[in-house]
Amino acid sequence: MLFFLISYIFSCRCVALNQLAYGQNLIVFMIDGLSNKLLAKYADELTGFNEMSIYGSTTDYLKPVYPTLSYPNWISIFTGLYAENHGFTADYMWDETKQIAFMKGRGENDTISEWWQQEIAPVWYTIGKSNIDVHCYWIPWCDLPYMDLIVKVPNERKLNFSDIDQSESVSTYFPSIIEWISKYQMYRQQFVLLRYGGIENALRTFGGGSREIIEALRIVDLHILDLQRNLAQMNLFESTNLMVLSNHGMYTVNNEVQYFIDECFEDLSKVELVVNRHAMMMLFTSYADEVFYDLQVCDQFAPQADYDNEEDSTPMVTIYRTDELPTEFYWKNSRFMPSIVLIAKPGATILTKRIPSIPMHDEHDRDVKEIGGYDNRFDGMHGIFMARGPAFKINHQAAPIEVVDIYQLMLNILAIEPPHKHNGTWSNVENLLNNEWETRPAHLSKNSSDILSIRPFSMIFLLFFSYILYINICLC
């Protein structure tokens, strides 16, 4: 009888160990350049995305920060801040004081601490300091030291902009991610950041109506489906949450409305440097008043009504002094800002042939099919957000949220308080979560530490009780 009691106790113990996780795990799958409109166009054919919606929560769209470029939005996801607060002004930046450039991760100075405001902790630092394992796959800055922590990222998982196809291997890492969560979830939470660049690459090179973008959508959908099926097969959706989101959308370039700012100036030397191109351009000059006037009277920027809306008097390019930029962009107080900024109407692009520029101009500047960078209020720039797991409602459609809302949501799922003030609004994301989520007992955030400390005593007591019972039976 003692044997059966002990066997029963140990079997119960093993079942509990297999079922109860130390706390919630989180996987964040970021897709560059996927707009809500593009996903909606092909939604019926995308099983992986559909399963995310059926078994989780989906927002109408995800509003990016301005400018709707990669780095400003990546860093907003990682910090919960608008660009003017986190300091990554654009994909390309110029520090006039130190005379150095940020080259969208490709430059020799791009990894120096100059660019990251040290008082703002990235999400992986906060999570890592909370004794949660962090795993990064092609995430900008994640492999660089911050304060007293550095995430160990193998070379093949470090972001390399020279290899545009490096994230195509993302699904080959799923088995190790699943194994890691399964193996250690009793003792340690896991946080996984994945980035996929295939959609933006296809849109930029081939355009939204191409066979290549349809194939790219099919591939990323299979990745998302594969990841969900692997998690479900191991019963990990009881302890693991999966977020799928994009940083911003892309929009088709109209070759009929491409402008070269060189044509606006008789004396090109008045503009010392232009930074960024296409949807937005920064002009650094010591002759701000003269340059601003030349741009205002430049004939090529005059309003043009189009066939779809003949009453539209919006200029194809709007010229701003930096301090007059729209307040709702939360951008004009950023670091590394110029005297003058040009912002193109969606579809239009701004280029230069002869003025010194970052990045350097080349003959391929006009060849891009789709780009980001336009007004973040424009629906073509809106991204996607969907999530499933124990934290989220099932088959739930929610109102739009903003990129700056993601940071607080990630930390909440992992039961961590944000270490700095952020620009996210909790009421925006609260409706995505299970009704019981905010009222869950504190021990459910990190439950098995209590269980593991109590159960051994319970087991000793039961063994002792079994022994006494066995003695009594023998005496009888």
Automatic annotation (TrEMBL):
The keyword Signal belongs to this UniProt entry's keyword annotation: yes
Signal peptide: 1-16
A Pfam family reported for this protein in Swiss-Prot or TrEMBL: Phosphodiest
InterPro entries in the cross-refs: Alkaline_phosphatase_core_sf, Phosphodiest/P_Trfase
Alphabetical UniProt keywords: Membrane, Signal, Transmembrane, Transmembrane helix
CDD domains: Enpp
Transmembrane segments: 457-475
Top-rank taxon: Eukaryota
Protein name, per record: Ectonucleotide pyrophosphatase/phosphodiesterase family member 6
Organism the protein comes from: Dracunculus medinensis (Guinea worm)
